[in-house]
Design a protein that fits this description.
- It is a single chain.
- By secondary structure, the chain is mainly alpha-helical.
- Helices cover 44% and strands 0% of the residues.
- The protein folds into 2 domains: 102 residues, Cytochrome Bc1 Complex, Chain D, domain 2 (Orthogonal Bundle); 44 residues.
- The radius of gyration is 32 Å and the shape is elongated.
- The two termini are 26 Å apart.
- About 9% of the residues have low confidence.
- The structure holds heme C.
- Heme C (HEC) binds next to helix 2, helix 3 and helix 4.
């Protein structure tokens, strides 16, 4: 269908909206003082969130991690911070001297960061879809209804030659309808 195709195209445009679009990941504060309010993650994430904040703010601010979450790129070395690389970064941080991060904690932090990154990639609110531009499609001629033999189709007035066959008559009728509508 033409309309659903157009709608799909619009949805794709919305989905591939630029990075500047507001995301569902809520960040409060500015600059190095940015934080992730815990309430947005729900109670199920509370334990992981607390571990994340306790362990990942020991050497630098959480803003560094927020940068990575929001951009999908790490702020210092400009590497991808995505599903595939987030675990590597947590391990890298774990291995730093005196990180104090236990393996079990690292696992929970990874889960938390993956969920947070997903939130950051989602648009904040479903943007109202713009009205799809209505294509100026020509109105198709009405399909000639099969005329029962008892009621013959009225002879088209615009057609100078009398219709000889039913097919010709139908064609003439269609022509007359089109002629009348233009
Ligand atoms: C022991 C200190 C320490 C701890 C604990 C620590 N970090 Fe780091 N982090 C660093 C240092 C130092 C850097 C600078 C870049 C580097 O060495 O990779 C850094 C850089 C980063 C970067 C940017 C990396 C880049 O390549 O741009 C991210 C993201 C990050 N840390 C996330 C975390 C997370 C998540 C945690 C908790 C699991 C954490 N850090 C815990 C020391 C630490």
């Amino acid at each position: 269908m033409l309309l659903s195709g157009a709608t799909l195209a619009i949805v794709l445009i919305v989905v591939s909206a630029p990075r500047s679009a507001p995301a569902e990941l809520i960040v409060i504060g500015t600059g190095v003082h940015r934080e992730l309010p815990p309430a947005q993650f729900g109670k199920a994430w509370r334990g992981a969130y607390d571990i994340f904040v306790a362990r990942c703010t020991k050497c630098h601010r959480v803003a560094r991690v927020i940068d990575a979450l929001q951009l999908g790129v790490t702020p210092v070395t400009r590497q991808k911070f995505e599903t595939t690389t987030i675990p590597k970064y947590v391990v890298k941080m774990l291995r730093k001297g005196k990180s104090g991060i236990a393996k079990d904690e690292a696992r929970q932090i990874v889960e938390f960061l993956l969920a947070a990154r997903k939130l950051a990639q989602r648009p904040a609110a479903p943007a109202p879809l713009p009205t799809p531009p209505q294509p100026a499609a020509p109105t198709p001629p009405p399909t000639p209804t099969p005329t029962p033999s008892s009621s013959p189709a009225p002879a088209p007035t615009a057609n100078p030659t009398p219709a000889a066959t039913p097919a010709a008559r139908d064609a003439g009728a269609a022509g007359a309808v089109q002629g009348a509508s233009s």
